[in-house]
Amino acid sequence: MIHIKNLHKHFGESHVLRGISCDIKPKEVVCVIGPSGSGKSTFLRCMNGLESVSEGTVEVNGFAIHNPQTDINKLRESVGMVFQRFNLFPHMTVLDNLTMAPVNLKGMKRTEAVALAENLLAKVGLIDKRDAWPSSLSGGQQQRVAIARALAMNPSIMLFDEPTSALDPELVGDVLQVMKTLATEGMTMVIVTHEMGFAREVADRVIFIDQGVIQEEGPPQQIFTAPANPRTAAFLSKVL
Ligand code: ADP
Ligand code: MG
Q1: Is residue 193 lining ligand 1, measured as CB closer than 6 Å?
Q2: Which of 63, 92, 195, 202 qualifies as a cystine partner to 96, CB 3.0-4.6 A?
Q3: What contacts 64, CB < 8 A, 6 or more positions away?
Q4: Which residue segment(s) compose the domain that 62 sits in?
Q5: ipTM of this complex prediction, to 2 decimal places
């Protein structure tokens, strides 16, 4: 579903991704871990065309992202992304946040979009917040709305960039629970996270990135209990 070959990314003089190759299968749940500044966000952003590709190839859901001719907006309709900050539209109710893209981008009938939105709000446990303003919700609730909003486009892949890092600790669990449910339902997911317990429990594969390269990858069992690369071991000893 995702094929990345020899991906390099430069920002001016700085060489941030230095030859990343990685294939991700349908329904796979991949957690990306690594130190701050190692290129995790850039890697994820390259997967939905938020960053241009300096060198190499990135194919996501059949779209060649490295090719300037590719219709990136079309690609993004099938790839949901959730960021650290919730990015809800502040001037729209929760319901309108969910119906906007399906109605405006997909031409879905409003009644249909409302029914879909209500289903998704129920799924993330927030149907009672249907008519609330984003600012009246806790960070964890906003993040669950952001996930529901991404799901409203019926994506084949969901990308998460530290979705719980900005949350108060007591709000993290509900968001992780929603992500866990998605994983169980077979959503293809790439998740940058510092939640090692979650990665251990939910990931099919863990990728450790440091200095713009994949230093090590494997099933969580292996990465967390018997890392082969001393860099992985050193990183884990700081965060576990
Ligand atoms: P991580 O998510 O692992 O913390 P990032 O991918 O955000 O790392 O950043 C990797 C490196 O790329 C950092 O040194 C960061 O400063 C740099 N970087 C990221 N985005 C930009 C940008 N738009 N312009 C210049 N440098 C950037
Ligand atoms: Mg980041």
Answers
A1: no
A2: 92
A3: 57, 58, 70
A4: 2-237
A5: 0.98
Contact, 82 vs 143, CB < 8 A?
Answer: yes
Q: What is the pLDDT of residues 40-94, one digit of tens each?
A: 999 999 999 999 999 999 999 999 999 999 999 999 999 999 999 878 999 999 9
Which residue owns the Cα nearest ligand 1 atom 14?
37
- CA–centroid distance, 107 to ligand 2, in Å, is 33
Tell how far the Cα of 130 is from the centroid of ligand 2, in angstroms.
30
Shortest-distance atom of ligand 1 to CA 212? 10
Instruction: Specify the number of domains making up the chain.
Output: 1
Q: What is the DSSP string of 100-163?
A: HHHHHHH---HHHHHHHHHHHHHHTT-GGGTT--GGGS-HHHHHHHHHHHHHTT--SEEEEEST
